[in-house]
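Standup notes, structure subgroup. Blocker cleared on the adenosine-5'-diphosphate input:
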Amino acid sequence: MVGDSKKSGGMTTGQVVPVLVPLPVPGPYSYAVPEGMDVTPGAIVQVPVGPRQVPGLVWDADDTAGAVDPVKLRPITQAFDCPPIDATMRRFIDWVAAWTLTPPGLVARMVLRVPAAFDPEPRVPALQPMLETKPERLTPARRRVFELIEDNPGAWTKSGLAHAAGVSTSVIDGLVKAGTFKPVMLPPPAVVPDPDTGRKRPELSGDQAEAAETLRHAVGTDCYSATLIDGVTGSGKTEVYFEAVAAALDKGKQALILLPEIALTATFLERFHDRFGARPAEWHSDMAPKMREKVWRQVAEGRVRVVAGARSALFLPFRDLGLIVIDEEHDQAYKQDERVFYNARDMAVVRAHLGDLPIVLASATPSIESRVNAEAGRYGAVRLASRFGEAAMPDLRTIDMRKHPPARGGFLSPVLLEAVGRAIERGEQALLFLNRRGYAPLTLCRVCGHRFQCPNCSAWLVEHRFRQQMQCHHCGHAEKVPEACPQCGTLDHLAACGPGVERLVEEVVQHFPDARTVMLSSDMPGGAKRLRLELDAIAKGEADIVIGTQLVAKGHHFPKMTVVGVVDADIGLTNGDPRAAERTFQLLHQVTGRAGRTGEASHGLIQTYQPEHPVMAALVSGDRERFYEREIGERQRAGLPPFGRLAALIISGEDKAETEKYARSLRAAAPRSDDIDVLGPAEAPLALIRGRYRYRLLIHGDRKSDIQAYIRSVLSAGPKARGSLRVQVDVDPQSFL
Ligand code: ADP
Ligand code: ZN
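Run returned:
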C-alpha cells in the first residue's frame, strides 16, 4: 500500500487509503495520506467531504483503492492521537452493516460516537524512581521514601509520595535534585478505579456456585462461548455473573455488562461497588459529552476495566475485551428502532464470535430465541430454579374482572384494594403496575363525540393532568387541555376514557388517604436523577403504595414489597403482534417478581378479562416450561423466528397516495423465490407518524434463506425512492408496529 511519494501539483501521489465516513454512502472514500503522516487501518482521522470536515475511520485496503485518479484525491486533514479501532471492531462494523442492511458509515458512526475533539487528555506530572542512584547515606526521612519506593517502584505524584512516606515535599525535591527521581508525564487517572476482585464475596449457594464455575470455565478458555443463565427473579443471577466478571478481570481483560434501562443502573452500580470496591464506568445516552469522551478514550486505551451500559456500549472500542454480559437479555430495550435497526443482544453474540470471547445472557424470562438456542445446544445453559435464601416466589392469582368489577369510575377491583390495604396495615409495600403514561389514553367530548387526535400521527392524544397537556406519545406533539370542545364548543363536557397511571393515583388516594403514595413514570419531571432518588426511597421503605409504568417492572429489589397488582394484564395481548404472548408473559413475570424478595409471604394479583388465556394460566400455575413449550411450538408451526426469518420494509412519505403507489411498485419488483414470501403492502399499524404515511412490506423466509440478499435485490430492482419517500429496513422486527 505504501508507494513512493512524488509530488504532482502539490498533491502527493504516494499512499492512498480508503476512509469510512459517518454518512449514508455505500462504502469508504479514497484519500491521499499527506507526507509525514502515518496511518494504518483503524486510525481515526479527519477528512474533507464536500465543504465539510468529518471524522473518519481508515479502512482496510482493497483493490479498488488503486484505481482512483490521484489528481482528484483530497488529502486527509488530520490524524487523531488515539488508539486505532482494531480489526475485530472493523469486522464487526462490516457485519452489523451487512446484517441490518445499513451503510457501513452509519454503523461506524456509532463507534466514532465521540464528538469532534479527539485531543489527548492532558498528562499529569509524576516522578519515576531511579533506584540504582541510591545515595550511600540517608537521613531518616529519605530512608522512609526509599523503603516505600523499593516496594512500589512505579511512578508517583509528588504529593502522593510525600503523603505516603510521611515526609514533606522538600524532601522529595531534594531527592529529585540528587537524581533519585526522574520527572515524567503520566496519563491522567482512569475515570473509575480498578475493581478489586480479591474482596470478600458472598458465599454462593450450591446451585449458584455450580453456575459460577461454568462461567469461570468459559471465561478461562479464551474462546467464543455463549451461556444462558436462566434463573427466576431473585435467584442470584447477578451474583453469579459477577464471578465471570471477576474471572475476566483476573486475566487482565476488560468486561462489558449491558443493562436494558438507565433506571436499573443506579442500584446495579452500588451492588457492583459492594462486590468489587469500585464502580464500573457508565455508558448511556444521558452522559455529558466530556464524560463520554473520557470514557470512550479510556476504554480504547484499556484503562477502564468494566463498562456497564446501554445497548450503544456494544460499539465502544475495547482494547482487550474478555467478556460480555447481557442482563435481562429478553428486554425489548435492546432493540434500536431508528437509523441503524439492530438488536444489541444478537449483535453482542456476533461481537463475541468475532472477538473470540465468552458471552453470558441472563434472564428470568429468556427470549424464545435464546431458549431455542440453548435447547439446540448452540448456547450453554445454567439454571437457577429457586430464589436465594428464605425468599419464596409470590403466590400469583388472576382477578376475573367480569366477576369482580371495580366501583363506578374506578379501575381497581375490591379484591385488589383489599390486598393493598392489608399490606400497608402490616407496614409492607404494594405496587400497582399499569403500562400507560398520563391520565387517560383517550379524551372525548360527551356532547358531540369528538376525539382528541394527534395532527401528525394516527394516535389519540393522551391527557397528562399534572402538566395540563394533551400529548402525543409518538411525535411529542403537545397542546393545552382545552376547556371547551374544539368541535362543538361545549364547555366542561370532556370525558377521560380509560386509566393511565396519573388517574390511578386519584383512585388510590381516595381509598388510602393516609398512605404514602408514589407514582413513577418515564416522563416524570426531574428525569433519571429524580427517578434514582425515588427508587432509592422506595427500596428504603419510604413509600407505602407505588404506582408505576414498566420502568418499575424490572430488576429492582424492593425488600418490603409484598403485593403487586397488575391493573390491566390484557393491554399487550390485543395488538396483533406475534410476540404478544411472549412479551406479556415476560412483563407480568418480571413485575410480579418485584414481590416477596426477602421472605415475607407475597402476592401477585393480575386483573384480567381473560383469566383462561394461556399466558395467565402459565403465570398462575407457575408452569413456565409449559408456556415456553407451547409458544415455541406455535412459532415453529408458523415458521416465525427463530424457525423462520422475518424482515419489514417500512415505506414512508408525506403523500399518502404516492407512498402507497411506491410501496406497490416495490412489491411488484420483488423477484419470485422458493424460500421467501413477500406480504403486503399494508398500512403499518401506526399508519401515520410525524406527518409521514407508512406502508409495510413483510418479508418472510425459511430459516436458511438469505433474507438480506433478497431485500437487496428488491431494492435494486424497484424504482428509487424520490422526494419525500423513504424505505427503512428492519431485519428481525421486534414488534410489528
Ligand atoms: P437476580 O439477578 O437473579 O434477580 P440477584 O443476584 O439480584 O438475583 O439476587 C437477589 C438478592 O439475593 C440480592 O439482594 C442478592 O444480594 C441476594 N443474594 C443472592 N445470592 C446471594 C448469596 N450467595 N449470598 C448473599 N446474598 C445473595
Ligand atoms: Zn403525534
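Discussed briefly. The chain has six domains: 7-88+104-112, 124-186, 206-389, 391-436+500-632, 440-498, 644-731.
Next: hand off to the docking folks.
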